[in-house]
Amino acid sequence: MRNDRRILDLEIMAARIRHNVLEICRQRGGYAAQGVALADIAACLYFDELRPDNEGWYHDRFVLSNGHDAIMTYSVLAETGHYTMAELRTYNVDGTKVDQSPIEGQLGFEITAGSLGQGPSQAAGLAWGLRQQGLDQRVYCLFSDGELQEGNVWEGIMFAAHQKLDNLCFIVDNNDMQASGHAADVMGVEPVDDKFTAFGFQARRISGTDMAELLDTFEEARNTKNKPFVMICDTRLWDGIDCLQRALPIAHYTAQSAVDWDMGMKEIENTLTKLEAKRDG
Ligand SMILES: Cc1ncc(C[n+]2csc(CCOP(=O)(O)OP(=O)(O)O)c2C)c(N)n1
Q: Per-residue pLDDT tens for 205-254?
């Protein structure tokens, strides 16, 4: 059931995740802008939709395809106690356990995801296998608009629709950015929703940063039968921390020296204080 308190708790968690992203990346840089922008989706997934239990396990499966967004997951797993902040501060340091892109078997990750474009087809195979075994686990896969430029992704999409995998939910981080510039300039992927619909998906286009809308859309995904679901999230880098978004709107990779981390920390700490006051007031 959706209620205001549940939304507020998840918004607080999203603010904490954003804070963790800055805290981790300020040491040596990293994919901070993506981690910040994905915080609402992450809070909703890991603290609600994936059906977490009290011992830190999830009933459902999450496949991170765009491996460089692992910073999002690390920042969640700091909150769940799976990683300490001391471990996470070694992100981007030679010999670290928490690489920029994760590998299969690493705590918190299902697949090796440094090479982009692999997740959707692996997630579709996983969803198919779970259904074959009669299990009620659902599969969620996050990938980026840049990955939509890769052929293997469309094979996975076609397979999922053909198999009517209604236990599968794709989440597209449609931020219109990739390493060499705007996706629209490199090789446009729009209209993303129409393409998925044409392939046989139920598609919904949302901001990806509105908690109530995220909860409603995940509910719609669960209630969609006989076809897979995709939520296309029109995020923008640094969503949720306005001063960094204004200062560095196109930051595919954020060098340690490129931003004023203190300024960003201050803004997100203010946001967190306001949200907690609302909860306690
Ligand atoms: C197959 C493959 N090609 C190139 C890269 C190098 N690379 C890392 S991140 C990135 C940009 C990808 O853009 P997008 O997936 O849209 O991610 P975002 O802009 O959201 O960070 C690229 C090209 C890679 N990791 N894998």
A: 999 999 999 999 999 999 999 999 999 999 999 999 999 999 999 989 99
Q: Which H or E run includes 277? A: helix 261-280
Query: 88 CA to middle of ligand 1, Å?
Result: 22
Distance, in Å, from the CA atom of 224 to the CA atom of 209, rounded to the nearest integer, reads 22
Decide: helix, strand or coil at residue 171. Answer: strand
In the reported structure, the alpha carbon of residue 203 is separated from the centroid of ligand 1 by a whole-number distance in angstroms of 23
Q: What are the C-alpha distances in Å from 48 to residues 16, 26, 51, 112, 123?
A: 16, 28, 6, 25, 20
CATH class of the region 4-280 = alpha beta
The ligand 1 atom nearest the CA atom of 179: 11
Counting ligand 1 atoms within 8 A of each CB, the residue from 103, 115, 116 with the most, and so the one to mutate, is 116
The domain limits of the chain are: 4-280
Q: Is the peptide bond before 249 cis (omega within 30 degrees of 0)?
A: no
Please work out whether the CB of residue 145 comes within 6 Å of at least one atom of ligand 1: yes
Q: How far apart are CA 5 and CA 13, in angstroms?
A: 12
Q: Is the pTM of this model over 0.85?
A: yes
What confidence tens digit (pLDDT) does each residue in 31-89 have? 999 999 999 999 999 999 999 998 889 999 999 999 999 999 999 999 999 999 999 99
**Whether 64 contacts 70, CB under 8 Å:** yes
